[in-house]
Amino acid sequence: MSQNEAFFLDTNILIKWIYREILNENPAVEYFINSLSKGQCVILHINLIEFETIIYDAYNITSHVIYEKILSKQDWDKLGVEDKLRVLEDIRKNFEQIYDQILTKYYKGQILPGGIRRILAKEFFIRLEDKLLNSNLEALRNHITLNERTQDLIDYLASVEYLIKQKCTVIDDTKILFSDNIIREIQLIYEGINAYIRNLKSKGYNKTPSRNDQLIFVYLFLLLRGRIYDKIVFITDDNDFERMYNTVLNHLKDIINGNADLRGDFKEYAIEANDILRKLVIKGINDLITQQKR
Amino acid sequence: MSADLSVLLEEYYKVPNDRNFPVHLLEKMRDYLVKQYEENLFEIYEGMLMLILNPEDKDKLKILSKEVEKIKEDFELYNSMLENNTTIGEYVNMVMNELQKLIDGLKKNEEEFYKEVLNSDNPNFLITTYYSLYLRFVTTVYLKLHKTNITNPNIKTKDSRIKDIFNFANFLVGFFGMPLLIYIKKKEVFPYISELSGALLHALVADRAPMPSKDSLGYYLFSKIHVVKNESK
């Protein structure tokens, strides 16, 4: 292992790790992360922002469910404990349908339908049931509909991040200064990414690399270029990122060979960018887990 | 209430001929904002984190300011005139006064805003959470700026290095405030509201150690989901 090799976790891996039990994920993911030192396990702030966005979406829908099914009923305080339990049970049993209804009715185009948000929203609801049972309407209103909700969300995330930061390093400040060379190299990378997106679109694929994925790619490049890391292994659980990586390398090769840049103006930048990107390795989490078992 | 709030935000953007903010202009601004968000994520994320976590990082500030300068040319409505005609001391006072007004106004209208949104035909929790995240963000920015040391208040604003940080704060406060104005004016939720909220949340969370109060539901959730699990091993 080179002296400064690090493993960067994609958002999907972060979710798998933090919510392993809820998602019924393979414990090997956790063992793998535990096997890394804090300096080796790295999370980019963009991935943490994506993670926070998912929690934010899920928690807001949990709040909306509670608002619609409990707080809108003026008689909550008057119900006996048995009746309250029945209401809660009904919500829990039908949570998926309620969630989908609310999403279609009020959040179309604002919240992605993905299953992970729904699973988390339900979990948040279940874990809050005791509180819902024991709090009066007034207190609940403050927490669910007024500004206490944001404080709750911040408290929750601050605690989860504290947990994350015990195991991993979060890069919040990249300390990267720009020079003209860097800007030229990044230009080539974006050209490569755009070629990839065009190619996908021409084949009729709608799912193209997200803006955040492109940004993560550039960050990893800059961290290697600035020699903040000598080698980076980016861990993810799909192959979107790897395909993007390969297309960028191909684009750089085309420039180096003179196929894409006849006058050779950018050749030296392409060579440097190519050398740097060789230090980036994309790995599926499952490969790493099986590797570890051997 | 919405009218009050709208005037408050419009004033912040120095909209000419106050009152009647033309809706077609707002649509243009929205499209512009979406485009800026898509194309300049890097500067926005980096800038926000820097402002909250490390406002004194001069080198980075300079680079980011240069980038932002390009973004905001046609987006923000004042500056160069101002910078030529004020001292940095006056300029700082102006920015701080505007921020104070914004914070006080947002605070005053907060509960009313939540009630109005939730009692409307289209209750939306994303926009109410965004409102309160934004209020916290502006307050945090204000507190950070408040601590900035102005060694020489009498030099011209344009010659002062400190102006960058105030300028930048102004840009971000304006940028993140736009979704609220769009909602108030058009009852439309900004398409990237989740991502923007995630970014605001991240900056706010990164700035603090977990110190929740006992009746925090967030901490309660955390202990139910994460702590018990770890202890049972």
Low-confidence stretches of chain B: 15-20
- Percentage of residues in helical conformation of chain B: over 70%
Mean pLDDT of chain B, as a whole number?
76
Shape summary of chain B: globular
How would you characterize the overall build of this protein?
The complex is a heterodimer of chains A (294) and B (233). With 294 residues, chain A is an alpha/beta fold. Chain A has helices at residues 11-18, 20-23, 28-35, 45-71, 81-93, 95-106, 115-134, 137-144, 148-167, 180-202, 211-225, 240-256, 267-277, 285-293, and strands spanning 5-9, 41-44, 169-171, 231-236, 280-284. Chain A has a five-stranded parallel beta sheet with strand order 3-2-1-4-5, sandwiched between helices. The relative contact order of chain A is 0.14. In chain B, helix 1 packs antiparallel against helix 6 and helix 4 (58-72) crosses helix 8 (163-186). Chain B is mainly alpha-helical and 233 residues long. Mean pLDDT of chain B is 76; it is low at 15-20. Helix content of chain B is 72%, strand content 0%. Chain B has one domain (2-231). Classes of the chains: A alpha/beta (294), B mainly alpha (233). The interface between A and B is large, with 59 and 56 residues.
